[in-house]
Amino acid sequence: MTRIVLATALSVACSIAFAAPTAVQSPACPGASAMDQNADGFVSRDEASNHPRLAESFDRIDANKDGQLSVEELRAARRTGHHRHHGRLDVNNDGSISRDEAKTAPRLAQNFDAMDANKDGVLTRDEMHAWRKAQPRPTPNAPVEPVKP
What we know:
Blueprint: H1 2-19, H2 32-35, E1 43-44, H3 45-48, H4 52-61, E2 68-69, H5 71-89, E3 96-98, H6 99-102, H7 106-115, E4 122-124, H8 125-134
Antiparallel strand pairs: 1-2, 3-4
């Protein structure tokens, strides 16, 4: 009898946990939990206003137009943002980013040699993606180290 009660309690607890809205805290969206000031699992327009780039893109990212950003919407924006960024930098539309094209993006130019895995002088989407995935991700609530120039 005790086992049945414990199993039922565990089942109910798991159901509640999985039914709860997805919190914004996610390793796929580092820093998102810091933007969610009221810890409701979403980033509101007001919370986004403290982050200029996010505020500027809020309406585009808010796919369901509910006035708040879920972790899924932030993930989708992050994925499409990388592709859009690549296309904007690839001025000659050859599918790769040359060293000259990278000069317009300071962080990319700074990391160009590390990202260029085959040392051919151009960056492909695959090289950029592989390099990004290899970078350590901040853990939630961990202090953020300032980027050194």
